[in-house]
Amino acid sequence: MSARPAGTPAAGLRPFLPSDTPTLASILSAAIFELTSEDYDPDQQDGWAAAAASDEEALAKRLASSLTLVAERDGEVVGFIALADNKLIDLLYVHPKVAGKGVAALLCDAIERLAAARGATSLIADASDTALGFFQKRGYVARQRNSVLRGAVWLGDTTVEKQLGEPAEG
Which residue range or ranges hold the N-acetyltransferase domain (predicted)? Predict the structure, then answer.
């Protein structure tokens, strides 16, 4: 576990509840618009956010069909992670106000442990250009570059993979 800055309260984790969906959709959109502008232009951000968060019913089904953990700090939801088929980190987003404060690492640590306990030997993720460095620092290795259509725009991302049980580089 990484140390958190002094005075920063620890985040706690809990399972996803359907009632979390509007908050998680808001976090997802905020993260896209506030954290990815160095890597994606406004049209790409619009297409990404619309595809991922505009249909809350579809998002709720996607989250419910995965092992989804929610991070809370001081009673406020600040991030989430979804593991699909015990092999794919399908979604990982944190609120911009907690970016870089260990919440994503906490979520990733937990999902990696749970996946390993359920028999997974590796995990994959399609990391945005913004998140690629985060995953690489955790020991994920780039496997392929992708172009994905979101709405009417193309975005680049990278499929990364981590063998579970190996120490993260750091």
Answer: 19-160
